[in-house]
Structure formats: structure tokens, C-alpha cells
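Batch job 17 of 40 flagged for manual review because the log was empty.
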Amino acid sequence: MSTPTKGFITILTGLYSFQDCIHFLAAVRKFHQEPIIILIDQVPIVLYPLLKAFKNVILKPAPANENTVLASRQAKLALYEASEFDKTIYLDSDICLLTNINDVFDYLDEYEFLLTEDVQPSILKATNLLRGKQEELLPNVLPILQSVGLPLQADSVQYNGGFMAFRKTEVTKIFFDEFKRYFEIVKNNQDKLLLKDQGAFASAIASVQPHKKILPPTYNYLSKWQDAYDIQDTIKVLHCTYPYRPQYAKDISRSLYTRVFDRFAKVFLPNQVTNPWRIK
């Protein structure tokens, strides 16, 4: 029997995330040598060698869109087709590995899908998915989501799509097909919903029910919401844009190459924290 192939995949749509992506590659390469696919859009070809400087990096076109956030959402829907591996770990490009995560690949021997819950996992409180004032929306979150056609219930869970791992099976293929279908509902109801994928993602999980394992937040630790966690174990995966990253995490990806690149970035690249598409 042949050994299952495995690798990483991330998304880079636009220059605002370019510095994050360089440090993402550096952090992954510190602990892993598996191939890394980057779904890329709106990045000048002249900059591609900066990404390919890391070994075994594969660049593939992401779905093109003027709105780089929408392009990123659509690229996430295409992960199943874009992956060349039997076992795939997807990470947002503003993630920094703090250690190896070989155990995630190992879990995929048993499970089809691995994911982490959102900081606010209850769909009943998911005002972050809706347009309007959160305090006014809170009593109506579920009715609004159901009214547009998302098959969510009071016990449905909101997951954070910045980390996921999947094994290529017929069930995971169906999951991504449903993910696409439900995201079309989100796109078509922009008067009520923000352009986020968590609602569609939760809907696909609820309807397809892949054989999944929920990993603890140490695998997708959003430092912006650190006060919401009660974590005793060591953080493995830090989810934080590079400018706000603590020094110990910056040291993970620090090298002569990234030090020179960061000087280039200050002059030639826009700052991720000022990305105007983040508020669309």
C-alpha cells in the first residue's frame, strides 16, 4: 500500500497579506517539509520568487475577484479541488506555527475532518455574521439565518475556518459542494448577512456531518480574543497578523531572509492592519 500524500494549503489574495504569507511559509518550514500550496490572486508575478524562495511551494491561481476578501472566501470553497494530497491541512496565511503539528496528519487516519470551534461557538450568539447593531440583533440571530435558507438549529456550532484539515473522501467532497451552495446564499443576502463564510461552513457541517474531530483552541489560538480563552496547554497554532504578533512568535520565523524581506515590506507593501476590504 502506498503512503498517503500529505501537505499544507493557504490562500494569498492581494498584497495586504503578503508579509503574513512570507512569515507563514517560514514558520511552517521550521517544523515541516511537506509541500505547501498557495492559492494566489492579485499579486504581481514579479513577487512570486519571494514565495518560491521556500522549498516545495506550489502556486495555483485563486478565484479572481476585485474584492480580495471575497476572492479569499471563494478560494476556501475550492480547497478540495485545489489540494493535491490525500491529507490536507489548511491554515490562514496570518497563522504562525509554534511547533510541529504532525499529530493533525495522524488524526486524519481516523477522521475525515478536523476543525476548531470559533471563540463564540453558539450560533444563537453569532451576531458577527449579521449586518446591524449586535445588541439589537442578538434575539434574532437564528431566525435571520434560517430565513435565508441556512439549515441551522439552536444547538448548531460556529467554527473558525482559519484552520481545518481533511482527508479526501466522497463525504468531504460533498461537504465542500454544500459549503459552496450555502455560501451562495450568504452572497445573495448581503442586505442581512456580512460577507463571511462561518454560517455557510456551519451549515455544511450540520447537513453533511463528516466524521470529524474538534480540536482545542491551542490549534487555532486567536490572540485578539485571548481574554475569552481558558487554556492550560501549550499553544501550537497562533492566529495573529504579523504586525501584532508577540516577539516569541516573530522569532519563530526570523531569519536573514525574513529580516531583509521585512525591510522591503515597510517600503513597498501595504500594511495588513489597514486592509480596507476587512470592513466590507
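Reviewer: the log was empty due to a logging misconfiguration, but the result itself is present. DSSP finds eleven helices and ten strands in the chain. Unflagging and moving on to job 18.
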